[in-house]
Prior knowledge:
Blueprint: H1 18-41, H2 44-67
Amino acid sequence: MSIVFVPKKLRGKAKINQETIQRLLDENDQLIRCITEYMQKGRAVECVQYQQILHRNIVYLATIADASPDTTPPASSSTSSEAPAPPVNGHEVT
């Protein structure tokens, strides 16, 4: 069972730290591997179950990210330091 699933009486009491987030990311990696394996075997029912857990984990991580203060420095508004776009099919993109 996903570590995100928490009984209602315990919700809101969990401490979110880097270790918890990393465990979720590791769990998501494993879920994706299971989904891929079951898809290759044609076992759609199992795929759907794991996809639901993966979706719940991703929504939970997104909620954490949205609720946390932005700790990254603001990006520079100067475009002169940006690298030019790579050519597409041998043509330069403008």
